Amino acid sequence: MTRNTRDSILTNKTNMYAVILAGGVGSRFWPLSRQLEPKHLLKFYNEESLLQQTIKRIIPLINPNRIYIVTNNLHKFELENQISIFGIPEENIILEPQGKNTAPAIGLAAFNLIKKDTDSLLIILPADHHIANLEKFKSLVKNAILAAHKGYLVTLGIKPTYPAAGYGYIKINPKSECRNPKYYKVEKFTEKPDLKTAQRFIKNKNYLWNSGMFIAKSRVILDELKRYLPQLYTALKRVSDGADIDKTYSLFESISIDYGVLEKSRQTVVIPAEKLGWSDLGTLSALDALLPKDKSGNIIQANSIDINSRDITVIGKNHLISTVGLKDLIIVDTEDALLVCAKDRAEDVKQMVELVKKKGGYEHFSSHTVKRPWGTYTVINTGKGYKVKLIELVPHKRLSLQRHKFRSEHWVVVEGTAKVTCEGKVSLINSNESIFVSAGHVHRLENPKDSALKIVEVQSGSYLEEDDIERLDDDFNR
């Protein structure tokens, strides 16, 4: 490739798009992350969420109106709120009705973008990674773009710095080296080996960590999907042609692009990278490399008192956390759940989340405070036949026009002024005033002011879950 050709490809960005995969939950970061509050939307070590950091990382290479985000329906409104500062159009959010791993998500994006641009080239990035060396990242992506223009599926491989059992590995074929740009053919993929195998891999310079980032043209992605996952390709094409995505997606096999396509395709190549400062933040123990430590190696992000502990991580907000003589532990305290975990068992937190689900608790799904497009609600107390919430509405937002079959609601305004519509009658309810809404009555709660509205809601009835809501009109099209 000549310098003129290289410069022409990199300066002509009209066919380049970024696709950010934001459909995961990050269950190994529980209890910080929940199904409603996934890892990539959290701000746990920075003033920006992982998603926002990913967007900032790619903006120097891709205009915001060419950045697309694949996410779950559940996260649409919080995601819209987080990306608004970048000028990414709302129509660039591609919604999945349920998470089915990366192959369906990437295929859905490729079908969307090939309609807009038959020569589209996609820079595909997970939303929940950390990269410290941004200049190195930009250089790496530019080289990958050049290789992708040759028709390759270009993966980015990270030179290992320790034997990580939680990462996937790529083995390169050293005899296949190509230059300008430099890349290698892939010999094989290995998904999350045991520690002994990872220790063997790190001694072999031909093994790289699989970063989960890759670059390719839409038509190449779709051609390889058609070749290696024909049923998925056909189903995605039906969705692209207008089939009901909810019904179609439920039939998809949950499969990664790595397992389904990359490790089978003859078009897969890898570009090695080192000194990138990369982490996929797969577990809470990954924070060891990111957060500041005291002289005893402890990471303390909480109201904490300690005596003689070493190499512990303590994260909390509301409670005083006191520790004595601990070593190599992770302690995460939230408003409704506490995790105490040995650092070398951080991978097993995902199993803990499954146990929480089986127990029947809500803690895997959300915290006490639940975000909604109109504000938040916090469950204060619950018991047989009643539930108490604190509801906070941001200025000039309103809940849906709705009714409940099984429950009545008593609203007490503690701050601000509430505009309440009930059975067609509109009332303004001020601080220290209240109103009662009977089961079956059509009602709506609204904040008409420029300041926050806070109300205490007391629900009573035979069934008090969130699916006892019949929405008749909704500003957010839920």
Question: What's this entry about, in short?
Answer:
23% of the residues lie in helices and 31% in strands.
**How far apart lie the N and C ends?**
51 Å
Overall mean pLDDT stands at 91
- Rg is 25 Å
Number of helices: 11
Low-confidence segments, ≥5 residues, pLDDT <50?
A: none
Strand content: 25-35%
Largest sheet, spatial ordering of strands: 18-19-20-27-22-25
Tell me the overall shape: globular
Attribute tags:
single chain, 478 residues, alpha+beta, 6-stranded antiparallel β-sheet, 5-stranded mixed β-barrel, 11 helices, 28 strands, 31% strand
Question: Could you explain how this protein is built, in words?
Answer:
- This protein has 478 residues and is of the alpha+beta class.
- The chain is 23% helix and 31% strand.
- It is built from eleven helices and 28 strands.
- The protein has helices at 3-11, 50-58, 76-83, 102-116, 134-148, 195-202, 218-228, 230-240, 245-249, 257-262, 349-359; strands at residues 16-22, 67-72, 93-96, 121-126, 130-131, 153-158, 169-172, 184-190, 207-217, 268-273, 278-279, 299-301, 304-307, 313-315, 321-324, 329-333, 338-342, 369-372, 375-383, 386-393, 401-403, 407-415, 418-422, 425-429, 434-437, 443-446, 453-461, 470-473.
- Strands 18-19-20-27-22-25 form a six-stranded antiparallel beta sheet, with no helix packed on it. Strands 6-9-7-8-10 form a five-stranded mixed beta barrel.
- Helix 4 crosses helix 7, helix 4 crosses helix 8 and helix 7 packs across helix 8.
- The chain is globular and about 75 Å long.
